[in-house]
Amino acid sequence: MHWRTASLGRTRGGDGGAPRQGRLPGCGLPSRYRSRQECPVTPSGVPRAVAIGGGTGLPQVLRSLVGLGFDTSAIVTMADDGGSTGVLRRQLGILPPGDVRNCLAALASDEEGMLARVFQYRFADGDGLAGHALGNLILAALTDLTGDFGEAVRVAEHALRTRGRVLPSTLEDVVLHGVDRAGAEISGQARLAANPTAVARVYTEPSEPAANPLAIEAIHEADAVVIGPGSLYTSLVPNFLVAGIAHALRESSARRVYVCNVANFRGETAGLDAADHVQALFEHGLSGAIDVTIVHGGPVEPLDVCDDGARVEPVGAGPQVRARIEALGVSVVCADVADPCDPARHSADRLKQALEEVLS
Question: Least packed by Cβ within 10 Å: which of 113, 145, 153, 308?
Fold first, then answer.
């Protein structure tokens, strides 16, 4: 592997370090990152990135990384059991296709093309079809035809001519369990996500399922790793409960970045600030595995409910919170990354800009 030298925290035009649009004064990488920093690249000259998570946040990061020129792989949680995915898991015994489907569509060579759109098509009605995404059914059929979910994903990658790889974190059938902060035991990812009381910890059944070897290989080869954004306990943490993934991240020489959520949804992370989010990741295997955290440092607007009626609140990331993150050995970059039209979520363009600054 050879190295490419880049300067962090500066525009490509070399403007003497003037803040980039979206950055806030006093919120940035410490001096050891602001100076000339070595960024590894593959022998072909194309840096490799891995994005880890699930839900709606992971596809957004994949688009950003591809747009920034990275050879990109997604490592996707296999704990999802809600909606169409949950029905197919229960009826067909397959691994969860929903988050994989979203990543495949995001990486499709023509995301607006008819094939990608058909893959994302969701039936509005029809006995037995209502609520199902066609891509989920296609992945179920491919699993039956090939006899292997991982092979089904590879066939779908080929059909969509994806600009990267989509890798299930494990190929075992996993059930997510958790304990909320009132001490109640909850079984199932969807039930945990909908639980009105904040989650304290989660675990899987079976414990420490075997990792997908391709996921471990992707982490070992990565020059950059991006974790999140996504539901903390039900989309992100399940990946790190898979045997070997957290260890591979701790041993990785890649730049390891955690993108903290802008808002706390439902009860899952109610009352947690950005430092609490990082601490929760540490408690589930990632201590020493995060170099930089990107937090929302722009204006914070009161949030009442999101489009599905669930209560949300901003994730606190003020100076004291950032100091607590830094005390954990994690650098903090704060930028205005919220979507002006939907302040509970990240702006795709602003997040891409923040990632470019951290990873360039």
Answer: 308
For residue 247, what is the enclosing H or E element?
helix 245-251
Q: Give mean pLDDT, residues 343-355.
A: 93
Is the residue at 197 inside a domain? Answer: no
Q: What is the DSSP letter of 107?
A: H
Helix (H) or strand (E) holding 90: helix 83-92
What pLDDT, in 10s, does the model give residues 290-310? 999 999 987 766 655 555 555
Kindly report the backbone phi and psi dihedral angles of residue 169, in degrees, each rounded to the nearest multiple of 5, phi listed first.
Answer: -65, -30
**HEC assignment per residue over 133-183:** EHHHHHHHHHHHHHCCHHHHHHHHHHHHCCCEEEEECECCCCEEEEEECCC
CATH of residue 224's domain is: 3.40.50.10680
CA 152 and chain centroid, separation: 22
Residue 83 backbone dihedrals phi, psi, to 5 degrees? 60, -145
Distance, in Å, from the CA atom of 316 to the CA atom of 263, rounded to the nearest integer, reads 9
C-alpha–C-alpha distance, residues 42 and 223, integer Å: 8
Question: DSSP label at 234?
Answer: I
Residue 22 located in a structural domain: no
Residue type at 236? L
The one-character DSSP state at 122 is: B
C-beta neighbour count of 356 within 10 angstroms: 16
Q: Identify any residues that bridge with 263 across adjacent strands, giving them in sequence order.
A: 314
What's the N-to-C CA distance of the chain in angstroms? 17
pLDDT tens track for 98-155? 999 999 999 999 999 999 999 999 999 999 899 999 999 999 999 999 999 999 999 9
Structure token pair of residue 266:
């439902």
Domain encompassing residue 211? 49-77+206-359
Residue 259, φ and ψ in degrees, nearest 5: -95, 105
Beta partners for residue 76, in sequence order:
53, 168
213 and 138 in a common domain: no
